[in-house]
Queue: 2 jobs
Job 1
Amino acid sequence: MALKIIASACTGCSACEAQCPNVAISEKGDVLAIDPKKCTMCDGFDSPQCVAVCPVEDCIVPA
Ligand code: SF4
Ligand code: SF4
């Protein structure tokens, strides 16, 4: 399981990028994208760290 960023919702603010413990988030054009091979859905954390900082509701969702 992994999360994905809805490109049409993402503002490209980059807040999520630095929060990912697995360095799964990177720039893809004007927005950011999650590498599903690296995303562990923050196993070991209380909640997905990218979702916690994203200012846009429902921008990061299950892939
Ligand atoms: S859920 Fe966790 S591991 Fe997956 S992209 Fe977000 S911060 Fe990274
Ligand atoms: S925090 Fe949300 S809006 Fe900002 S770059 Fe990440 S996915 Fe896009």
Note: Residues 3, 19-20, 22, 24-25, 34, 39-42, 48-50 surround iron/sulfur cluster (ligand 1) (CB under 6 Å).
Job 2
Amino acid sequence: MNVPYGEDLLMLDDEQRAVQEAARRFAAEVLRPTGILLDRLPAEAVVAPDSPLWQVLTQASELGYTRLAVPAEFGGLGLSPLESYLVQEEFAWGSVGLSAVIFLSAITAGAAFLSGNSTLIEEFTMPFLEAKDGSVIGCWGLTEPDHGSDTLAVMRPELRVKVRGQVVARADGDHWVISGQKSAWVSNAPIATHAMLNVQLEPGAGLERGGVCVLPLDLPGVSRGPALEKHGIRSLPQGELFFDDVRIPLHNMIVGVEDYPEHVQRTLTAFNAGAACSAAGLARAAYESALAYTKERVQGGRPIFEHQSVRSRLFRMYSLVQATRSLTCHVSVRSSTMLEKGEAAPLQDSITSKVFCTRAALEVATLGVQLHGGAGMTKEYPAEMFLRDAASLTIADGENELLAQMGGALL
Ligand SMILES: Cc1cc2nc3c(=O)[nH]c(=O)nc-3n(C[C@H](O)[C@H](O)[C@H](O)COP(=O)(O)OP(=O)(O)OC[C@H]3O[C@@H](n4cnc5c(N)ncnc54)[C@H](O)[C@@H]3O)c2cc1C
């Protein structure tokens, strides 16, 4: 018997189930087919004016999915942390890449809002809330060509390395002047209208002497690289950002040197919890599609589902899916609840959730391909896409081995 998801494990009430069902419908009808279509296009076509990506953003925005936790009076869905988790799991089930496009679109507006600065809220948050067509899009530039895993060292003094950031902000009167380059991994960069940017504030000091600013990406001196061709999560456009003496008002620096390490830790805590949600949805997608295939493929005179070794592999996948959903739901709900109260959620739980769940998703997706046999190598089934996406999740938001090293240091 196929045990239903969600209501059994997560003990949902009627309202939560309605949120889950609506998200599941959008994921099945829009995200999954468009995600598969975009996965097969060249990166430049994914961001072209006629790309189906834009329609997805518009629809998601019209339905309020870009504004999950924003109160209803401001045009958001006003969802609870558990309901937000449910939407994230369903969306990642549909498409990990499109799910990231949708949720990241709010990042700059959200950062401006959390700064409490009314000028920034007016400039960055209000246009995002008012544009119900998904045309205001954020991104987060952290990684630099020479600094990927290095950025994690910001939070742990004993791991700090004296390396200079490649995007530097220097004060000049009542402005900051920004110069340098972010790596090609900045999600949404090819389509974003605004950015949240981690910058080096003290040239010559280590990466920990940084800050965070928000800026529109149509300022003089901003340019972008081409959309990145990559192996997995291809429906998520990524690319470089370049800054050539870009001037922003002083108040756009929303985090200064003193608060920077704590800010990086909070952001990593939130993003690791989010990556784990994606892994849970992806693992479920890979399991479900393998389960369906094993019931239709006949070998040895019967559906392969009836062979003992196939069932035992399906059970391994099912166990990982359910373990992943339980852990990530718990960590994500607690992390969001604490964040809403202005408290710092435990980094270690987020790292545990991210590392465990993305490894689990990779194992489930690998088993999924094996169970498809040769068909798992083809584009006829999404199994191979799930595997590529799962591999990418083990690197996004901190490469797993490095995160595990950090998690180990916190024991
Ligand atoms: C799908 C996806 C989305 C992303 N989105 C964004 C985004 O929106 N914004 C953004 O800024 N970045 C983003 N990134 C970048 C991501 O955060 C980095 O790729 C990640 O942090 C790893 O950095 P790196 O690629 O430079 O690898 P590196 O840091 O070069 O690591 C390469 C290898 O070396 C190992 N290594 C590195 N340092 C050490 C050490 N000190 N000790 C032992 N081993 C070490 C690592 O474990 C890894 O195996 C994204 C990446 C992906 C894949």
Note: The chain has a mean pLDDT of 94.
